[in-house]
Design goal:
Length: 266
Amino acid sequence: MKVSWKPGNMLYPLPAVLVSTRGRDGRDNLLTVAWTGTINTNPPMVYISVRKSRYSYQAIHETGVFAINLTTEDLAFATDFCGVRSGRDLDKFEALNLHKEEADKIAVSLLSESPVNIECRVTEEKELGSHVMFLAEVLAVHADSDYVDEKQSFHLEKAHPIVYSHGTYFGLGKKLGTFGFSVMGAKKKKAAEKAEKPVDQAKKQIRKTEPKKAGQSAGKNVKSVKKQSAKEYKGKDRIKTDRKPGENTRKRPERRPAEQKGRNRS
């Protein structure tokens, strides 16, 4: 038996992404967005929806560009923090000790710790009520070579992406199938399952041995961080790393387009 509720947003889970912006004053910011998704394949297009009251809205409205940075389990704390703290009050990159990379096509910083960065240019701005939807064309995609295999196939699952569902963040569960598995012939299905076994075992081994990345834990919990001033936070709970905030240290391979498969505060 099901119960009936009043109309509301129950389309979950959703990707919880970090959107990077740069205002006309040159200030970089990160905001957490779950109202986002793919809207077209050719040309590749995405959207994000942002409240007008948010600090980042003005930057996107004035410049017409932004970048979507996919998030991982290591970035869960940073993802939540960037959704509950405003860029009006502090530099989130510095507070969380996250690192920047300059984009290729737009004047916005990309998040180094993200496995995928998507550069976007706004093509249309739609006022819908509580939120403003920015429809945008994808100008460039940057993928971390750590997740590209010898066949040049990209494995986002190895980065352990996260999703947002009704106020809670989750990691992804076990693999259930690949596109078209429901109509795959018995021989092909058996061959595919056989090929996946060593891959699954390798993933488990990687999960056990891979080092934690910056952004995983910047404090005991969000409540404690909320009570601290920006100055206290930067001094006590900053993520420990040898890199300096804003330092561009990642060496990327030649950048190439990648297939797009696809909360919101300041």
